[in-house]
Each structure stands twice: as C-alpha cells, then as structure tokens.
User: Fold this.
Amino acid sequence: MSLAQQGRRVVLAGLLLLGGVYVRALAFTPAQKIFYLHVPAAVTTELAVILVGLAGVFFLFLKDPRLDRFAEASAEVGTVFAGIVLTTGPIWGKPIWGTWWTWDARLTSTLFLFFLLISYHLLRGAVTDAGLRARYGAVLGICAVVLVGFIHLSVYLFPTLHPQPIVLRPGKPGLPPEMLVTLLLSFGVFLVLYVGFVMQRYAIALRREAASHG
Amino acid sequence: MRELLGQAWTVARKDLVLEFRTRTALLSAVVFTALVLTVFNFGRDPTAVATIDLAPSILWVTFTFAAMLALNRAFQLELENGALEGLLVSPLSRHSLYLGKVLANLGFVGVVEAVGLPLFVLFFNVPVGQVLLPLIGVIALATVGFVSVGTLFSAMVVRTRFAELMLPVLLLPFLLLPLTYAVQATARLLAGRPLSEVSGWLKLLAAYDLVFIAVALLLFPHTVDE
Assistant:
C-alpha cells in the first residue's frame, strides 16, 4: 500500500473518530460544541509550526531531504488547521461577542501564524533550485518558531477578550472533567488527522520530485 | 572577536562608501520617507482624530517602509558582476559578512530616520522636546530589530523570483512585533507618561534584538553558501 493510500486511511479513521467525539460532545457534555474543533485545531497548528522549525534545525545539520519534505508537508497542514481556527473562531465570536473579528492579542497572534505559514509557502514557491528551497525553508521555519515564542510572550501583555487558557492553568478551577475528557479525545483525533494529512502531503512531494527528475 | 568586528567594519565601510558616493538609493529613500509622511497628512481627517493619537502609528509605519526599502537593496547591490561570489570566496567569515551588512543597513536606515524624525515633528507638530532621548532610544532598538531579521531575509530573497515583492511578504510578519512594542513605547512617551511605563517595552525590544541577532548569525551562513 502506498504512502498516499495509508495517509487516506488514517485521515478517514480520524474523521470517523471526530464523529465519535461529536456524538459524545452533543449527547453527554454541556454546551460547548465548536470548542472541540477550535481549540484542538489551534494547538495542532502550533505543533505543526514547531515541528517545521525542528525539522529545519535538523535539516541544516543532516541535509536529509526527508526532513525537508516533512517540513513542507507539516507547514501546509498547519496552514489548513490555522484556516480552521480562523473560521471557527468568528463563527463562535459573532453570537457570543457580537463581532466576527477583533484585534485582540490572541486572535492577532493566530493571524500572525497564518501569515507566517503563507509566506513560508510563497518563499518556497519563489525559489527554483531544490537544494536552495530546502535551506531557505529551514531558515524561515526556524525564524518562525522563534517569532512564535515571542508572540506567546507578548500575548500575555495585552488586555484580551479571548477566553484564557483553561486546561494548563495551575491552581484555578479548570474545565469540568467530562468536558476535559472530550477535549483530550478531540486533541487525539486532531493528531491522527495531522498525521494522515502529512502522510498524504509527503507522498505528493515525493511524486513531484520523481516527476521533475524523470 | 576583534577580527570578526574588523572584518565586519570592512564590509560595512565598503557598502557605506558606495552608498554615499552614488547617493541615489539614499536620496530616494529619504524622499520616499518625506513623501510617505506627507501622504499620511492627507490620509487623515484632522478635525476627527487628534494628531497625537495617530502620531506613533504614522512614525512607525513610515519607518517600517523606509527600512524595507533599505533592506531590499542590501544584497541587490552584490548581484551585479557576481560581487556576492567575490565576497564569499574572500577570507571573510560568514558572520562578519552578516554583521557588516547589518552595520551598513543600520547606517542607511539611520540616516533616513535622522531626516524622517525632524520632518515628522515638523509636519505633525508633535511635542518631542522632553522625550527626545528616550524616543531616539526606542527608534534605535526597533531599528536594530528590523535590520537584524531584514538582513538575513534580504540575503535569501535576492536569489528568488520577485525579490522586491518577496522581502516585504516575508519580513512584515516579523516586523509587526517590534513595531507593536515601538508604537506602545512611543505612544506613552509622546503622551508624557513616566519612563517607568516605557521600560517594559524597551526591554522587550532589546530581547527581540538580541534573540534575532543571535538566530540570524547562526542561520546566515546557510543562506549564502552554495
């Protein structure tokens, strides 16, 4: 079975599991619904960006093309997940806050991340030489991770409308346990989806390389 | 260390001498800055928004654009006659090449800002008398941040298609953060707030500068090597 087919199966399994999470969310847990898409998608986006940066660091040392293909795939999947965050957020925000968008630090930082990922793809698209493209991608990926760290620091300095982090919050009452379980399940499902998408995107990168060499 | 800085100074001096002898790029950048400031004057309704509320944004958007112009030409210069290859095969270390380019860009942007700031004060009638020194400090810190990342990216984009367009697209997400810090600091300074309210933003700017100079120093060799 090819990598692309395996990836498709993983994604299919992920989507079925996501259905399962929503059965649980709608039937057994109070209120929150879009929460189980929005929050895991946001966390997975960050994870994807961090992995792009890590892959970049290792690529610059090892010069292994697999790392570059992975970084490219991870960045693209991260872009899609950031898109999910930026669409589900306003859908929730309009009825709850009364506005689609506000220039709040958390919202802006997600937009930042989205722009960073887009510019990563634009840079890759603008370099013709494959070796150079991989190196530039690695450099930009590493810079992006450093910037994301700075953005996280800064987010706490601005007043915010966005709900504060609710899971990793020492000493304060967090989510009700049944919601926490649903959220954690949803995280797991998004990880499965991430892996599935990255596998498919990696397979595309392989085919493109084969096509350009052949 | 001394050798590193000496080599960096050689590169910077070469660029600056070239710049001050031809003067075309520098003059264009200065005129551009003056024009942007003028455009801002017409791009607002003076009866609706007080100048002092807009002033920090005007100053920083102008300086960001000016920095971008300067950075775009930093390595473009070296493309002619394969000058970049010449630099790379010379016994310069990559780190001193980067630092030299940073110094030259700082000089270039510094001159533009030195003309831009008085124009800004004049055009928008901003009271800077009391806070001139801290304001210059904010400008210096933010400019170092702009230039440290910008020089790294500028070395990358010269070998891409649409280099002039690619640099702003890559760089703006990175400039937005120091820009935010600088605007916050400038707004407080211009409003006559105590310096203690500004120091936090200055520290953030300094941290940004240090981190990105370090990261760029480490990454720069990978952007120019063949």
Summary: The helical segments of chain A are 3-28, 35-62, 65-97, 105-126, 130-155, 177-213. The interface with chain B takes residues 60, 112, 115-116, 119, 122-123, 126-129, 132, 135-136, 138-140, 142-143, 146-147, 150-151, 153-154, 157 of chain A (CB under 8 Å). Residues 177-213 of chain A form the longest helix (37 residues). Chain A is about 80% helix and 0% strand.
